[in-house]
């Protein structure tokens, strides 16, 4: 296992075979003048991933507008042996949505497939194409007086196909589940160009293997998701938000279970935020403010929702839960949002955590999950393991405590040697991931594996599970054209 390095491109261009050149020419004809890009400068945005670690090359960026065009592209690629990198909004943090440096692959962008095919308010479903931006789907659901709860920082640019490809999570998993739980059906184009229409909107269908789950979370290694049927929910009528200083992580766990039980399980969000995150956000984001006058070591951002109109009881329930927790010493202080503006001000402290880290300097990120009940003991054990690598390393561990998913990031020491810090990349990964696995956790909770964590997956995943994954890959994609070198 080696630390990722920013990749450099060779000066030598890739020389396609006659079969590849013919396939590319036929692809261009199939897609029409608006359906492809082959100028390197124009392709650039499709070739580099969000953090700039990986920078690849491609023969072509194909931009099909229909499922049939996706089918035609994959059929041509399969016949000519051209590797395909499916791509949505290209917001991957693991290098899964960009090509390698050789230049022999094509990028298949779903950005033109952005139609909402239908919304069925009575069935609480919407059928949409893979290139729809997540925020757009939230807005379209709201217009129908419904709610699509998948929410994450990149929602203004990420696309639902990529969300399904990585089984995205976000801030509302506690109440609604991740992308897998929000999906009833999918449409997929297989590597040989065949189209599987699995766009069922049934809640119950026990007719054999549930095939959609093979493709959700597969990161484009088995086929291309072109459309999906998503679950919708009653639209929240009121949201109550509090930013609470808590005694410690154990207190957060106790507060979480109390809030779920005493609110009728209406907790939508429960985010754990240490003081260092607040300090970094206040340091680098001038429009953010500390909502509490006193500094504390640990905080949680908690939200309750109700779908009832004029539900006066939600305020009483929320304040009752927080008040009792304060009497019992779990909460030390709290700020309650009185309107939507104040709510957004509190959310800025959480949503700017990653950007503030980037400005602060080098960090080594770990998107991990453990059983919710294990979060406090994991939190302490991982800190001990990290500080054995470097006692001065800063731990920026925050995130979705409600579902056990923490972004357990290690920030370089203040005023430290960045090169030396990054040189310990493998040691930090091993320290954190060993502890994660010892708690029965996962080394990738919601960001996927991609290229970044491929070797880590091979190290930690059960060998039988890996063998099953390879068997499925070989059966569905025997020529190995779908996103090769990613995941497995």
Q: What can be said about this structure in brief?
A:
By secondary structure, the protein is α+β, with helices and mostly antiparallel strands. Helices cover 36% and strands 20% of the residues.
Structural summary, described in words:
- This protein is an alpha+beta fold and 488 residues long.
- Among the domains are: 116-234, Uridine Diphospho-n-acetylenolpyruvylglucosamine Reductase, domain 3 (2-Layer Sandwich), CATH 3.30.465; 238-353, 2-Layer Sandwich (Alpha-Beta Plaits); 361-447, Alpha-Beta Plaits.
- Helix content is 36%, strand content 20%.
- It contains 17 helices and 19 strands.
- The chain has a five-stranded antiparallel β-sheet with strand order 5-6-10-8-9. It has a four-stranded mixed β-sheet with strand order 1-2-4-3, sandwiched between helices. Strands 13-14-12-15 form a four-stranded antiparallel β-sheet, with helices on both faces.
- Strand 5 and strand 6 form a beta hairpin.
- Helix 9 crosses helix 12 (353-360).
- The radius of gyration is 23 Å and the shape is globular.
- The two termini are 14 Å apart.
- 47% of the residues are buried.
- The model has no long low-confidence stretch (mean pLDDT 95).
- This is FAD-binding oxidoreductase.
- Its cofactor is FAD.
